[in-house]
Specification:
Length: 174
């Protein structure tokens, strides 16, 4: 009985060891070249997957930027994101859910060790909007929004505040 127990234990250890090796996560970051900034929350990038010349849409996680028709905030958010990127490569970092319902890649975007999602919120160019199950940087984004609100930056400017959230604006203007 002990030989069988030892043999089963070894087999179990072997199976568990193989299982953990096959479940190792893929690289959660990738460097890409930005083809264009579509809006304050969406980019088109080269370099995703096997075909480096294929363009993919990327939606910045954790934020909701004003719609382009939501003037002047939508164009300001887009222009600021363009200025932050400066036609340089960026790093995309992924969370739990990889794509949204429109097929866009969901990512946190980094350039020169700056989380651009957070920077846009901190400057009042976008709202923090947590989206389950992607919560990796929710606390950072929430603090950035509190800062922008307290300082009256961008959409929080008391003299010219944004009256509707981007989601409310889109609902009213379909």
């Amino acid at each position: 009985m002990t030989k069988i127990a030892i043999l089963l234990s070894c087999l179990l250890l072997l199976l568990v060891g193989c299982q953990t090796q096959t479940k190792s996560p893929a690289n959660p970051q990738v460097q890409v070249k930005v083809a264009q900034v579509v809006s304050g929350q969406t980019l088109e990038v080269f370099g995703m997957g096997d075909q480096s010349n294929l363009i993919s849409q990327v939606r910045l996680l954790g934020i909701d930027a004003p719609d382009l028709q939501q003037r002047p905030w939508g164009s300001a958010a887009k222009e600021r994101l363009q200025a932050l990127i400066e036609e340089q490569p960026v790093i995309l970092e992924f969370d739990v859910e990889g794509k949204d319902k429109f097929g866009r890649i969901l990512a946190y975007v980094w350039k020169d060790k700056v989380l651009l999602n957070e920077q846009l919120v901190k400057e009042g160019q976008a709202l923090f909007v947590g989206r389950s199950p992607n919560h990796k940087y929710d606390q950072r984004l929430e603090r950035a929004q509190q800062w922008a609100r307290l300082m009256g930056l961008g959409i929080w400017n008391p003299e010219k505040p944004m009256r509707l959230t981007p989601a409310e604006f889109r609902r009213q203007n379909r």
